[in-house]
Amino acid sequence: MGFRHRPTSFCTRARPLHNLQLWPLLVLFLTVLVPTTVGKSNDVDPYLELRCRCPNIVTGIPLSRISFVNVFRPGVHCANVEVIATLKGGEKTCLDPNAPAIKKIVMKILEGY
């Protein structure tokens, strides 16, 4: 009695039709995995852009129009402190971080309210 390699069912012959049947599944799998984001992206990571976000600064905006404030520290993207306010209408405006009222807002944000 000798040990002889017995071919299994998947090794007996090449099955090209079986391989062709797997291609649509592979294509479908890859299209699901690869995100298809074509066009403009409104949700851009601010740290990917290596430039200042605030080319123009507004000084005289009433605090009652502001709904949300973001403060960005200086870094590799910009050497300035940037304060971006979202107004109640949804518009975003850059504020002067050296203005006395804005300094108070920034200090409260940094202190945690």
Automatic annotation (TrEMBL):
Q: Kindly state which keywords UniProt assigns to this record, in alphabetical order.
A: Cytokine, Disulfide bond, Secreted, Signal
Chief site of localization: secreted
Segments forming domain Chemokine interleukin-8-like: 49-109
Q: Which domain of life is it from?
A: Eukaryota
Q: Name one Pfam family in it.
A: IL8
In which family does this protein belong, per the annotation? Answer: Belongs to the intercrine alpha (chemokine CxC) family.
Entry protein name = Permeability factor 2
Q: Which organism is this protein's natural source?
A: Cricetulus griseus
